[in-house]
Amino acid sequence: LADALKSELGGLFESLIVALMTPPVSYDASKLHKALKGAGTDDEVLIEILASRTGEQIKDIIKVYKKEFGGKLEKDICGDTSGHYQKLLVILLQGNREEGVDEEKTEKDAKDLYAAGEGKFGTDEEKFITILGNRSAEHLRKVFDAYKKLSGSDIEDSIEGETTGNLENLLVAVVKCARSVPQFFAEGLYKSMRRAGTDDDTLMRIMVSRSEVDMLDIRASFKKMYGVSLYSTIQVTQSSSVFCLFHFDKC
């Protein structure tokens, strides 16, 4: 069916239809493969997928990646990345975040993060990677609250002041996903459409990958964050053939 449709369609509409027909895990695996094997590394895709997927989803992606592309995802990522950025990506690839909230650790984690960044000259990246890469989302939200009380600023501000480049972007993405995955994707959609010319790859990737997961929550977050509906924002940036696939009639 997909091959038949490809012969009848073209352009963005063809890409969107084929993407919607692809199983979610296979879609993620294909996007990661393209990000690693294309011309240069698409770090935005690596960060988006590995920061936002659950541990079980990541483990499934690894299996499908090996089956469909004949290689190990971790090996391919290590071949294209380096340093602390690579280390955090590999930790996320394990899909083994701790479960629940350890009340005894929340204050200590907040103090450790402060001491690793704002509280010292230089930055202890290892401490940020260990805590943000291994603790559960519920636990991290408690840590972020404790950090705000301790330092007077959000953890994102500390990360942006203490790190740079891909490591900064990945750490911030992990924090945002721990706070709210729908808000993370609402921001991604907004940025994809506010640039000079729509970033169709990002727009399509988020819409397709979240369409049967949390799109209603993303829609609500988008309206709350930006004061306009996702429906109307897409409407003014996309052709009717692409836009009509997404039924946001109650947006």
In one word, what is the shape?
Answer: globular
Please give the alpha-carbon distance between the first and last residues: 31 Å
Kindly report the average pLDDT value. Answer: 92
Tell me the number of helical segments per DSSP (H or I, 4 or more residues long): 17
Helix content percent band: over 70%
Q: What is the subunit organization of this protein?
A: single chain
Q: Helices and strands: which structural class?
A: mainly alpha
Rg value: 19 Å
The percentage of residues in β strands lies in under 5%
Segments where pLDDT lies below 50 for 5+ residues?
Answer: none
Number of strands: 0
Largest sheet data: none
Give a written overview of the molecule:
Belongs to the annexin family. GO terms for molecular function: calcium ion binding; calcium-dependent phospholipid binding; phosphatidylserine binding. There is one protein chain. The protein has 251 residues and is mainly alpha-helical. The chain contains 17 helices and no strands.
In short:
With 251 residues, the protein is mainly α.
Which features would summarize this protein structure in a list?
single chain; 251 residues; mainly alpha; 17 helices; Annexin_repeat; calcium/phospholipid-binding; Annexin_sf
Secondary structure layout:
Layout: H1 2-8, H2 11-21, H3 24-37, H4 43-52, H5 55-69, H6 73-80, H7 83-94, H8 103-116, H9 125-134, H10 137-151, H11 155-162, H12 165-179, H13 181-194, H14 200-210, H15 215-226, H16 230-235, H17 240-243
Keywords: Annexin, Calcium, Calcium/phospholipid-binding, Repeat
InterPro entries: Annexin (IPR001464), Annexin_repeat (IPR018502), Annexin_repeat_CS (IPR018252), Annexin_sf (IPR037104), ANX5 (IPR002392)
GO biological process, one term: negative regulation of coagulation
